[in-house]
Structures are given as C-alpha cells and as structure tokens.
Amino acid sequence: MKGSKKPGRLELLAWLNGIVEADYPRVEQLNDGIGYAQVLDALYPGIVPLIKMNCTSHSVYTKSEEDCVRNLRMVEAALQRLKAQRKIDSVKLGRGKFADNMDFLQWLYGFYEENKGDTQERYMAHQRRAEALSKQRGGQLAPHLVPNHPAEQEPGSDLQSQRVYQLRDLVSSLEQELTNQVSNYRILQEDIQQVEEERNFYFQKLRKVEDMCSEYPDSPCVAQVMEILSATPEEFLPAK
Fold first, then answer.
1. Cα dihedral: 58, 174, 165, 158 (round 10)
2. Among residues 74, 103, 100, 88, which one has the least CA distance to residue 12?
3. What are the pLDDT digits (tens) for 82-94?
4. In this structure, is the dihedral angle defined by the CA atoms of residues 35, 7, 121 and 159, taken in order, positive or negative?
5. Four-point Cα dihedral 204, 206, 209, 211, nearest 10
6. Under the phi-then-psi rule, with left for phi > 0, alpha for psi from -120 to 50, and beta for the rest, what region is 198?
7. Where exactly are the structural domains of the chain?
8. Model pLDDT for residues 2-17, shown as the tens digit of each residue
9. pLDDT tens digits for 182-199?
C-alpha cells in the first residue's frame, strides 16, 4: 500500500489483518470492534482493555449487536483518552454497514500511519487476544481471530492470497444475494398473479351488475348504482 493515499477495501483489510493477525474477510465484520481495538493497542499498549472485550466464537458470526456495541464503546473511549480528532458512533458502527465501517477503517489507517513512529517491534496480536481470553470465564476465539500461522505473518504480507480469499467470500455473498433476489422475485410474481386474479374476479362481478342495471334503466335504484359504478375517484381527477 505504499504510495497509495486512499487504499481500497482489499488493501485495507490486508493491512488490518496483517497487524492484528486475523482473517477478517469483509469490512462489515469489523463491526465486532476487536480489529479496531487491536490496531490502537499496537500503537498504545493497554489503551483498550482487551480483557473486557468479547472475542469469543460468538462475537461475529452469531454475535448480537449489543456485544458489538459494547466492544466498540471501549474503542470510542480509547480515542477520547488519546484526544483523537475522530469521534465514532458505536451504535451505528455496530450495525455492520459497509459504508460506516469502511469510513472508519480508512481513518484508522491514516491515524496508524501518522503515529506508528520508527519502531520495528512486532505486535503479538494473537498472543494478546489469547492472554485476554484466558483471564475471562472461558470460551474460544472466533475463527477469524485465530490465524493459520500467526507466527509467520507480517503486517501487509501475502496480499495476493488475502485478495483471493476475500474475493471468494465476496462471490459467495453475491451468489447468496442473487438467490435471495430470485426467490423474492418469484414471490412477487405470485403476488402479482394473485392480485390479477382477484381483479378479474371483481371485474366480472361488476360487469354482471352493470348488465343487470341496463335491463332496468328507469329504476331509481339502478340510476344510483350506475352513478356509483361510473364515478371517477378523486385521486384520478386532473389537478386544478
């Protein structure tokens, strides 16, 4: 990502995954707050109380929005302690929308680059998570927080493999979305067909009433019925 002022989604994910020794496949899943917290922890050890954060196997794929927001509030508090110019909406980020998390991820990248200094010491992100979890009541780290080879990973390494992994996940998501859209389209078509059948049913009823009324043109009741049938609803009248 050197020389890129505005890195894209894949580059940013590879950058964050490299620093925090994780495998976040999508920007939206950063809403668990762990990745954000550990980027700050890499810059300022202990600025975020990792021991209080939920990074168990239920924190992303089956997480509740409440768990995400609780984690993100600790990130928010850390930024306030650092007197950072950036303010975040923990509730909004916790909903897992791409635009909100991408915006904060871009800012976090710039903040890290400005404050990382010249230190070359490696941040032991996986070890930090494991130590924090061991002091909690138990549980296992979420799958995306357990890298295959944490000791071999370096920040920003193996970008091509990361891209392939993320693109596969994106294709899978798009296929699922397409399947859902096709299913919704079929349901909509069935609804339209049902409405058309109901329309035809009542239209035939009205035609029979109209034919019957034409047989008795001089009846006062028939005249009223015909007036009702031929009346134009107000919403269909031309604007004055």
1. -110
2. 103
3. 999 899 999 999 9
4. positive
5. -60
6. alpha
7. 9-155
8. 444 678 888 999 999 9
9. 888 888 888 898 888 888
Look-up of token digits 């138990």: 138
Residue 119 — very low, low, confident or very high, per pLDDT cuts 50/70/90?
low
User: What is the structure's pLDDT at 170?
Assistant: 67
Token pair of 227, please? 């007036």
In 3D space, the residue among 121, 96, 113 whose CA is nearest the CA of residue 27 turns out to be 96
Residues 7 and 106: their CA atoms lie apart, in Å, by: 8
Amino acid 20: pLDDT: 94
The amino acid occupying position 201 is F
Largest interatomic CA distance in the chain:
100
CATH of 9-155, one of 1.20.1250.20, 3.30.70.1520, 1.10.1040.10, 1.10.418.10: 1.10.418.10
Cα dihedral 199→233→205→226 (10° resolution):
-160
Burial-class residue 224 by CB neighbours within 10 Å (0-12, 13-18, 19+): exposed
